Each structure stands twice: as structure tokens, then as C-alpha cells.
């Protein structure tokens, strides 16, 4: 059996879907796509995803079964230079918790908080 990546999908939970979508579209410079939930319980907007490529897809999700908040899993978004996206965080209503810093041979990361209280990372090689 071939090896698989540990993550196949992620959900970032929100109390206010429109606010969270606006935040991530502003910071990451992308458009999130409305996707359906087969259970009919969640509203979801997906990040640009090509499921046949390396990495994981994911969505901003509003669900009666999960809540947003800091202290849990941290999702890191790939960037060309994480300082670019980091510069958009405060103006989009979020907060930079730890500005761009080196993680040695693995590049650089920034730690931020979104409008829902979720902590996320921005990751780049330069």
C-alpha cells in the first residue's frame, strides 16, 4: 500500500461564515467556493483545491457540532513569502500573533489569529 499524507482535508470552524470567508479571501488573495455538505448540517466555503495534487484541501465551515477557537490544531497555509499575507491580517480584522520567523531549513512561518479566534499559520520557503 502506498504511503499517504497525514492530512486529507481540514475544516476551520466559524460562528460567522461571511466574516470568516471575507477574512481569508482578503489575507490569502483567493476566492473561496461554495460547496455542499451531504448531511445538510453545515455551510461550507472551500479554499482553492486540486485534490489530485500534493497537499490537503479544506474549507471554512459553520456547523452545529463544532466551534472555533484557539488552542487546538493549527493549519499552515503555503505562501510564496508569508510576510505578504501577514501584512493583510490586521486590515482584514485578524491579529498577527508572531510575525514571520525562521524555522531553519524548513523556511519561515507567521502565526496569526482570524476573526473567529482560530490560530493559523502562514508558511513559506523565503
Please explain how this structure is put together.
- By secondary structure, the protein is α/β, with parallel strands linked by helices.
- The protein has 2 helices and 8 strands, in the order βαββββαβββ.
- It has helices at 17-28, 82-89; strands at residues 9-13, 33-35, 43-46, 57-62, 75-78, 95-102, 108-113, 119-124.
- A 4-stranded mixed sheet has the order 1-4-3-2. The chain has a 4-stranded mixed sheet with strand order 5-8-7-6, covered by helices on one side.
- A hairpin with a 5-residue loop joins strand 7 (108-113) and strand 8 (119-124).
- Helix 1 (17-28) crosses helix 2 (82-89).
- It is globular and about 45 Å long.
- The termini are far apart.
Topology:
Elements: E1 9-13, H1 17-28, E2 33-35, E3 43-46, E4 57-62, E5 75-78, H2 82-89, E6 95-102, E7 108-113, E8 119-124
Parallel strand pairs: 1-4, 5-8
Antiparallel strand pairs: 2-3, 3-4, 6-7, 7-8
Question: What are the key terms here?
Answer:
single chain, 126 residues, alpha/beta, four-stranded mixed β-sheet, 8 strands, 16% helix
Question: Into which percentage range does the β-strand content fall?
Answer: 25-35%
User: What's the average pLDDT?
Assistant: 91
The number of E-state strands comes to 8
- Number of alpha- plus pi-helical segments: 2
H and E order: EHEEEEHEEE
C-alpha termini separation: 35 Å
Which outline best applies? globular
Amino acid at each position: 500500500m502506498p504511503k499517504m499524507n497525514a492530512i486529507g482535508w481540514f475544516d476551520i470552524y466559524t460562528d460567522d461564515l461571511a466574516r470568516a470567508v471575507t477574512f481569508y479571501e482578503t489575507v490569502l488573495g483567493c476566492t473561496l467556493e461554495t460547496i455542499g455538505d451531504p448531511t445538510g448540517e453545515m455551510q461550507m466555503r472551500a479554499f482553492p483545491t486540486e485534490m489530485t495534487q500534493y497537499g490537503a484541501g479544506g474549507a471554512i465551515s459553520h456547523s452545529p457540532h463544532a466551534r472555533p477557537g484557539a488552542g487546538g490544531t493549527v493549519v499552515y497555509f503555503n505562501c510564496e513569502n508569508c510576510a505578504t499575507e501577514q501584512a493583510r491580517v490586521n486590515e482584514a480584522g485578524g491579529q498577527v500573533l508572531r510575525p514571520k520567523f525562521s524555522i531553519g531549513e524548513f523556511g519561515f512561518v507567521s502565526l496569526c489569529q482570524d476573526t473567529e479566534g482560530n490560530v493559523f499559520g502562514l508558511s513559506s520557503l523565503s
